[in-house]
Design brief:
single chain; alpha+beta; two-stranded antiparallel ribbon; about 20% strand
Length: about 70
């Protein structure tokens, strides 16, 4: 007996068979970044914080900096 695809999504067996794509964590782990990601850790306002960033070096530096 075959079931409707929407019904298969609600069943444990059907959910395992459906490819939902990549799984990303809270820091977008699993995303294929084009450059290495570095972490900057700091303590501010009684909290430990982290900032993830990519430091992309230009092929021809012009002395200017852009932060996005």
């Amino acid at each position: 007996m075959k079931c409707h695809p929407a019904a298969a999504q609600n069943s444990p067996q059907g959910a395992a068979a459906i490819d939902t794509g990549p799984v990303y964590g809270p820091r977008l782990e699993g995303f294929d970044y084009p450059w290495p990601v570095a972490l900057y850790r700091l303590h501010s306002q009684r909290q430990d914080l982290e900032m993830a960033y990519m430091d992309v070096k230009p092929k021809h530096p012009n002395g200017r900096v852009v932060v996005l």
